[in-house]
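Dear support,

I submitted the protein below through the web form. The confirmation email said the job was done, but the results page showed an empty box. After a refresh the structure appeared. I'm attaching both so you can tell me whether what I see now is the final result or a partial one.
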Amino acid sequence: MDKENSLLSETEIVSAREERGETRAKEALDQIMALIRAGELRPGSILKEVELAKRFSMSRGPVREAIRNLEGRKIVEREAFQRARITPLRKPEIVAIFQLRECLEGMAFSLAAARMSDSELDALVEDVERSSDPSYYGEVFNAGFKFKFHAAVVSRCGNERIKHVLDVEVYELIRLYRWIAGTLPGRGGSAQAEHLEIAKAMRVRDMERVEKLTRAHIHKSMIYLLGDGNDAVD
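What the results page shows now:
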């Protein structure tokens, strides 16, 4: 009996260690993604395990596991000598992602316009109108939280497959270069104006116009990103 209890205790210890390891790897992953979203780790940046581990106050193991996770999601790639780096911006990949996004978000916004309540649509328009920040909008849908305009509307489209593809295959990669598109001359203000035009079309439930405006808005973002003045794109 004592032997069984001893074995059980050892199993529990191993399980606890594995759980702690997974938790630390998740922490490392979240912190790396935060650096990417903030623009501190830019496309092409080398990920140095030792430096990141020191910065995050953890061992290299969780950092290594987090980098493997990002590699599987194509946010990180391996180059010569097995160095890991944030996936560089390449025009063919950007075009492919934005074409996919244009199709799916155009449909998602149209579906959301049909599904959302009048009060939600009124709140969306009012929130975009009063916002001075072109990237975030205030208390739409969930009080106390700020949602990015696109993700907030897509979340109300009612099509789980569209939401899944955008969340898993599109939005994570877009975060790699959102900071570039948002800081190109004139894009922030024009993007906000386009958001307002889309929101107003949604409020009157003109689904055809909503889809047309959304697709045009995303296409313009791609054109800005691929502009000749942007040396961050390979």
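Response: this is the final, complete result; the empty box was a page-load delay. The beta strands are 76-78, 84-86, 136-137, 147-148.
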